[in-house]
């Protein structure tokens, strides 16, 4: 099982302090919610945990080992994968390329034929039940909901230890699909961070939540015996 501990994370953009001394622990097999209004610092924390943004100070450990954000590859090497709110898949790629790009960057696919690449992508699509998407389609031809499911599927596939889901249901019509797959990851011991303003989802999935306000962690909430009023 896997655990992430981010300690005293501070990040500023020029004079704007986006995060100030934020500490966050993601526990094995749990979905931890990150809540906060616009400008609270959620995107900044997501970028830091994903590996793409360096904090000014503070430290992160995964399973007790130091994790230093430097690039998306630093995240991949550490077993962290993120489904970004902005849907990060480049529209000029095919579905297969989008799914396999991390492996290609590692050089794994350098000598593999096109046929094998397509088969491998098809297997990932089947594994994550993206039955309405095919490997050779271009990202640009997908609907918004399909792009979001592909973004999520890629993150699920790459998240060996830590999965970050930033507003993953914004374009989704079938939330059950996501919840089933997230539970498979937590059953496998993966630690999950879930950013959403949809509180019904948070109550359903997340035993704990951290609330950010103006870059500070102002509350760490136990939701495990909250009653569902909706
Ligand atoms: P959200 O709050 O839904 O995450 P935002 O609209 O706050 O989205 O931000 C969208 C993107 O723009 C994020 O990647 C964020 O880091 C970036 N961003 C937010 N505020 C600024 C700013 N003042 N200058 C430049 N980029 C910003
Ligand atoms: P949230 O995702 O909760 O909306 P962000 O992390 O996007 O919060 O933003 C936190 C603060 O940092 C905000 O004041 C925002 O305007 C600022 N900010 C975010 N990204 C940038 C950026 N690239 N350049 C300058 N300011 C930024």
UniProtKB/TrEMBL annotation:
Tell me which residues make up the ABC transporter domain: 4-230
Q: Which domain of life is it from?
A: Bacteria
Q: Which family does it belong to?
A: Belongs to the ABC transporter superfamily.
- Please identify the protein, giving its name as recorded: Ribose transport system ATP-binding protein
Species per Swiss-Prot/TrEMBL record: Labrys monachus
Q: Which residues of the full protein are shown?
A: 8 to 237 of 513
